[in-house]
């Protein structure tokens, strides 16, 4: 399609020459923390519910099978508070990852009026996604599940029912980190509980009968090992991507960088924001619930936005 002074290519796989500032020249959008984003995908919603169920299961076994029956009050209190705080941080990180707009490009903005407003130079080429009819900024890729182009899309994770992209990668890293810590903690408590119960009468060690308690602890250990393996791999992959300023899609496609790469600590600061501080590991940082409640519900394609 030819237009006065510029050309528009309906090619998804090419890199665009349009940067983010030019794309947003027509007006500032809602910030990712100002609205709720939710993908209506059956598989993703089931996986998200399963994630919460498994975390609640681990909390139940640790609290009611291991800690509450303990005769050592301080042992039960300290470990109970620590484990439950880690579980809350993990679930909060999961919610922030799932309900944060990962960096979706406005759908259907490839109109003649909008392109004219960009004031492109003669001969400059921009690229339009043929699937969602949007002008693709640099490093954006189309997600077939979200049905949108996502800035700096790393991958679509069904366990958080969302893409991991520019705006929510920090929360996904925190989610994998806290789930790994929860898994390690649960495995350590399970091992300690088992050896303690072997030395004494089992009825003095747990309120549950030996077969039930052993079965619950075995399931918890299997869950912990699976969670730990998955999250450790994902955490390492994400940190490597951040430090090399290269998403997983860009690495798999072997795309040569056309952007100025932010390496190591510069990349970490770009994702987590500012200098290293406790805010880096706080999934509640930047949350403005009062702002979300004042906005009305909108539906567009595969996602709900508030």
- Per DSSP, what share of the residues sits in E-state strands of 2 or more residues? 5-15%
Helix content: 40-55%
The radius of gyration is 23 Å
Distance between the termini: 35 Å
DSSP, total strands: 11
| Count of helical regions | 10
Strand line-up in the sheet with most strands: 1-2-4-5
- General shape: elongated
What would you note in describing this structure?
The protein has 306 residues and is of the alpha+beta class. Helix content is 49%, strand content 12%. It has a four-stranded mixed sheet, with no helix packed on it. It has a three-stranded antiparallel sheet with strand order 3-11-10, with no helix packed on it. A hairpin with a 2-residue loop joins β10 (298-300) and β11 (303-305). α2 packs antiparallel against α3, α2 packs across α7 (210-244) and α5 packs antiparallel against α7 (210-244).
Task: Describe, in short, the structure shown.
The chain is an alpha+beta fold and 306 residues long. It is built from ten helices and eleven strands. The chain is 49% helix and 12% strand.
Descriptive terms for the model:
elongated, 306 residues, single chain, alpha+beta, four-stranded mixed beta sheet, three-stranded antiparallel beta sheet, disordered N terminus
Explain the layout of strands and helices.
Elements: E1 2-3, E2 6-9, H1 20-23, E3 37-39, H2 42-67, H3 73-99, H4 112-117, E4 124-129, E5 134-135, E6 140-143, E7 148-151, E8 155-157, E9 162-164, H5 169-199, H6 202-205, H7 210-244, H8 248-252, H9 265-272, H10 289-293, E10 298-300, E11 303-305
Parallel strand pairs: 2-4
Antiparallel strand pairs: 1-2, 3-11, 4-5, 6-7, 8-9, 10-11
